[in-house]
Amino acid sequence: MSNNTNRRDFLGYSFAAVAAVGGAASLVGMKQAWDPLPSVLAGGFTTIDLAPLKAGSPETFTWRGKPIFVLKKTADMENSDRDLVVGDDRFTVAIGLCTHLGCIPAWKKDVWKCACHGGEFDASGKQTFGPPPRPLDLPPFEVNGTTIVLGNEGPEYKKIAEFLTAQA
Question: What is the spatial distance between Cα 112 and Cα 98, in angstroms, rounded to a whole number?
């Protein structure tokens, strides 16, 4: 110890150093506890290959515990600015939950029908009848060739989302 530092000052400095190290260690531990696990982060992305889909027959996929409807449209189905265009094909991509109360609509011929309150959505996901207040929601996606990755926001998603925002 130097001549200017007494025992009481030394104990105070030592306590402050130990408290600072303990505080930093607890902050690191809290950050690790708050960060999502790698398995959760990996579960946030789902890849869907559009090539094997049959026209006129929607497929249901799961993303973050929600049903995702993907419909390859036939030539006689109405075109919409909401459609995803990949090559010469048009697709409807939507979260498969009714925007009224969250029921899962079923595909009947050429519309999705919600059995709970009679809501109907056309092949583009737009509400056509019943109590749903808006079209089926659009999940964030990114197009990579003939596949889409749910969970990423690509330029195609942003274009459709801007159209939907303008319609609201």
Answer: 9
String of b and e for 19-36 (b: at least 16 CB within 10 Å)? eeeeeeeeeeeeeeeeee
Q: Which fold has domain 42-167?
A: Rieske Iron-sulfur Protein (2.102.10)
Whether the predicted pLDDT of 16 surpasses 90: yes
Task: Compute and round to an integer the Cα radius of gyration of the chain.
Answer: 26
Identify the pLDDT of residue 79: 85
Can you give the pTM of this predicted structure?
0.71
What strands, in cross-sheet order, belong to the sheet with 66-72? Answer: 59-63, 66-72, 89-95, 84-86
Q: How far lies 78's CA from each of 33, 118, 152, 157, in Å?
A: 49, 22, 27, 20
